[in-house]
Write a structure and sequence with these properties.
Layout lengths: L3 E3 L6 E3 L6 H4 L45 H6 E13 L4 E12 L8 E6 L2 E10 L2 E4 L2 E7 L7 E7 L10 E11 L5 H4 L5 H7 L14 E2 L22 H12 L4 E11 L5 E4 L2 E4 L1 E2 L12 E12 L7 E4 L4 E2 L5 E4 L6 H19 L7 E5 L5 E3 L2 E4 L7 H17 L11 H20 L1 H18 L18 H19 L1 H17 L9 H10 L4 H9 L7 E10 L10 E9 L5 E9 L2 E9 L3 E9 L5 E6 L9 E5 L8
Parallel strand pairs: 3-12, 19-20, 20-22
Antiparallel strand pairs: 1-2, 3-4, 4-10, 5-9, 6-7, 6-10, 8-9, 11-17, 12-16, 13-14, 13-17, 15-16, 18-19, 21-22, 23-24, 24-27, 25-26, 25-28, 28-29
């Protein structure tokens, strides 16, 4: 199904439109009670700390602000950049971080307080603000707030009070220290009635000892807030509030930069690598002067990731115990402790190569990275975390690799995607997933996925009374638009141009992007590339479907009249069928009009402008039995299939 995958068990579907936790909500009560206070913290397990100086600073007591912080204040804070020195102690499930961040008042009003949040098991230790005379301590209070943006169901919110309120558009640089533990927590899902084993398999984020059986895995906002954020409160049971917030935060991150220096303090074998935002980098082990056995060795390993835009994601970090194994064709990079587990995934990737090569050219920009992990799958462009198996069937797991392989073929994981081009980066993998389904299961199977997606898009489209909620694809942030509607755009372009010309145009766009990584900074760059290669005018289509959110077409068959053609050489001349279609929607529609009789069919395309009617004539060799307008390839407000049956022709008198 579009936006779903089976990895590796075909019975284990994963919904990508919403985080995996959404699946649990279908069976959970929406009115779950939230306790007045967060769960008590457990004592940390015993463990040796090499650099313990920051831990000697006392944790400030929780103090709630006299005047509660509002979501309007939280929404006013925009983090422009993050510079993190992250110190991980996996043996203790602990992190200690020094963060330098630039925060900006993004509202039109003066901001007297700056609220920032971390996971509820982390605590703010100290804070300073940059002034003309250097860093000066800035007063703050901290206390827990209920929010399901973190797996504990709470966040630890600090409220900083600058010496002078921030005027609209003004920024301030903060230097903060925080620390605490991050262990697996099923709290937020258990609060809404999820079984513990299912909840912990979904909310598996933790700092953990690096071994074949476990490792540090932190997915970021929406799962665990391991870095400072500024976001409104969002709770399960409040409609789509949480998932809408997660989507908006990912979109905001396209303009935010982040630098990370990670230091891992380990005992025994050092971790092999760190994966930050899907980028794999080996950890550099500091020289070891102790003459100890491997199991007793204490050491430090580091890695640096330079300042770069975060992109359309929540920052994530993973440590690995194993070295990555690159497949011979360099399509996949597999990290697993299982012997021979990489083979079926390499075979699945190789089977997808003909489809990907035909649409995007023969060479990927980078390999797809697969990380073996027992929890629910996680995906970040060309990086996929899932439970791998040496016994997996390549045919069954191939669909789950399409999205990641498409991303890795488009651009390296480190390349920032401009916000106006996210619809290409997110929609193209969905489209190619449909193409793969069409190739392996037939066109009707792919059209069935499109019809299902059309329902979700119609539900997501704002009403005429709420134009401020419109999402042109160049400004979109939600999956219903960035993935689903964008997939429809690519499908329609293929229908308009034909397979060969569409593939040629798509390959040319990717080639232009490879030569000039800034090519897609122009919001109209994709349209111009397609027009140049195809020699077609596509402005009418991009205006209604990409640059503006005009909603969806709303089609009806006004009339359809078959008329017999003259008999030729003693044989029936067939029929000509005149079809008139009305579009009461606000977006143009270019749809197939299909006349059928048994297995015989004839197709003509018809373009119907918004709030208008258009007609076409279809020449048909046999006796027409029905006419169909739109086969499901164009989403509509009320269904995507319109069929009118013709009465049998009258017997000659």
């Amino acid at each position: 199904m579009l936006l779903k995958s089976c990895f590796p068990d075909p019975c284990k579907a994963r919904e990508l439109l919403l985080p995996a936790v959404a699946l649990l909500l279908l069976a959970c009560p929406a009115n779950a009670q939230i306790p007045a206070q967060p769960p008590a913290e457990t004592a940390p397990p015993p463990g040796q700390v090499i650099s313990s100086a920051p831990s000697e600073i006392a944790v400030p007591a929780d103090v709630r602000p006299a005047v509660p912080i509002t979501d309007a204040e939280r929404s006013s804070v925009e983090i422009a950049s993050l510079n993190l020195d992250l110190h991980l102690v996996p043996a203790d499930a602990r992190e200690e971080t020094h963060a330098t961040l630039i925060v900006r008042n993004a509202s039109s009003a003066t901001l007297a307080r700056i609220p920032l949040q971390l996971s509820s098991t982390l605590h703010w230790i100290s804070a300073s603000a940059a002034t003309a005379d250097g860093l000066k301590p800035i007063p703050f209070t901290q206390s827990p707030i209920a929010t399901d943006a973190d797996h504990t169901g709470y966040a630890q919110e600090a409220v900083f009070t600058p010496a002078e309120p921030l005027a609209a558009g003004v920024s301030v640089t903060l230097s903060v220290v925080y620390r605490g533990e991050i262990k697996p927590s099923a709290d937020r899902l258990e609060l809404i009635g999820a079984p513990h084993d299912r909840a912990i398999a979904t909310d598996w984020d933790a700092i953990a000892a690096t071994s074949d059986a476990s490792a540090t895995a932190l997915r970021g906002f929406g799962n665990v807030i391991w870095y400072p954020v500024a976001a409104p409160v969002a709770l399960f049971g409040s409609g789509n509030q949480l998932f809408e917030l997660i989507a908006r935060e990912r979109h905001r991150n396209t303009a935010e930069t982040m630098r990370l220096r990670v230091t891992v303090e380990y005992v025994g074998d050092p971790p092999d690598s760190v994966i930050f935002d899907g980028q794999l980098q080996p950890l550099v082990k500091a020289p070891d002067s102790d003459d100890l056995t491997i199991d007793e060795t204490h050491g430090v390993a580091t890695a640096d990731f330079p300042t770069a835009p975060i992109g359309f994601r929540a920052p994530s970090i993973f440590l690995t115990a194993q070295h990555a194994e690159l497949s011979p064709d360099q399509l996949v990079n597999v990290i697993t402790p299982q012997e021979n587990a990489a083979a079926p995934y390499a075979a699945a990737a190789a089977s997808l190569q003909p489809v990907l090569s035909a649409l995007l050219g023969p060479t990927p920009r980078a390999p797809l990275t697969l990380l073996d992990h027992p929890g629910e799958p996680f995906e970040d462009a060309g990086f996929v975390v899932a439970q791998l198996s040496a016994a997996a069937d390549p045919k069954l797991i191939a669909p789950a690799l399409v999205r990641g392989l498409t991303h890795s073929r488009l651009s390296p994981q480190s390349r920032p995607i401009p916000a106006a081009s996210l619809w290409i980066d997110e929609g193209l993998p969905e489209f190619i997933s449909l193409v793969w389904k069409e190739r392996t299961e037939g066109r009707e199977a792919a059209i069935g996925e499109l019809r299902h997606a059309a329902v979700l898009i119609a539900l997501a489209e704002p009403s005429a009374e709420a134009p401020d909620k419109a999402q042109p694809l160049t400004e979109a942030y939600s999956d219903a638009f960035l993935r689903l509607k964008s997939a429809f755009v690519f499908w329609q372009l293929r229908e308009l141009l034909g397979d060969e010309l569409f593939s040629k145009s798509l390959t040319a766009f990717r080639h232009s992007l490879a030569l000039n990584p800034a090519f897609d900074r122009d919001p109209t760059g994709f349209q111009k590339s397609m027009e140049k290669t195809s020699n077609r005018d596509l402005a009418w289509f991009f205006d209604d479907w990409v640059y503006k959110d005009k909603g969806l077409p709303d089609l009806t068959i006004v009339q359809a009249n078959p008329r017999p053609l003259p008999v030729r050489a003693g044989k029936s001349g067939g029929y000509i069928v005149a079809v008139e279609v009305r579009n009461d929607g606000d977006a143009v529609a270019d749809v197939p009009v299909t006349v059928r009789s048994g297995k015989l069919f004839a197709i003509e395309r018809l373009r119907i402008l918004a709030h208008s009617s258009a007609s076409t004539r279809v020449v048909f060799e046999g006796t027409p039995e029905s006419v169909e307008v739109n086969d499901g390839s164009v989403p509509e407000l009320r269904g995507t299939n319109h069929t009118l049956d013709f009465p049998p022709p009258s017997a000659p008198q």
